[in-house]
Design a protein that fits this description.
This protein is mainly alpha-helical. 71% of the residues lie in helices and 0% in strands.
């Protein structure tokens, strides 16, 4: 074996939590040797990401994804991407009706999905929050919170 292993994946998102990045990087290193193992690791990475953003460790991954999507108010496309990662990862471990070989024809897309999800769940909220703190007055922020409360009732 040659060290260090070259990676097949695009670089991990700069805001990817370390516990997720470790799985992502490992998946990138083995993707060319074992696309199925890489898919399973990316599924585990999504699971860890859901826990990182507040899901219960004991929940099934499909429940975590549903919770994350609802809490973050993400569009359907993010839900679909997360479920695709879950299903492809499941198929890597358990034979099913999904044609894993077709899904793994372009494994780089699975890595891109993970980076997009990290950006939306971690980077975007942090950047938006920082923007509001710099631009909005305390009174404006209070008004926004009042509006949120009214729409939740």
């Amino acid at each position: 074996m040659i060290y260090p292993l070259a990676t097949y994946a695009p670089p991990a998102h700069k805001d990817m939590p370390p516990e997720v990045k470790g799985l992502y990087d490992e998946a990138g290193q083995i993707a060319m040797l074992s696309p199925r193992a890489a898919a399973a690791l990316l599924r585990a990475a999504i699971d860890k990401l859901c826990v990182h953003v507040g899901c219960n460790l004991d929940q099934k991954l499909d429940e975590k994804i549903t919770e994350v999507i609802a809490q973050a108010g993400l569009p359907k496309e993010y839900s679909d991407a997360m479920h695709i990662l879950r299903l492809v990862g499941n198929s890597a471990l358990h034979p099913s009706e999904i044609n894993l070989d077709e899904a793994l024809d372009t494994p780089e897309l699975l890595f891109e999905f993970v980076n997009l999800i990290v950006d939306r769940l971690i980077t975007f909220p942090r950047n938006a929050s920082g923007f509001l703190k710099k631009v909005a007055t305390p009174k404006q922020l209070e008004h926004i919170e009042d509006l949120k409360k009214k729409t939740q009732q």
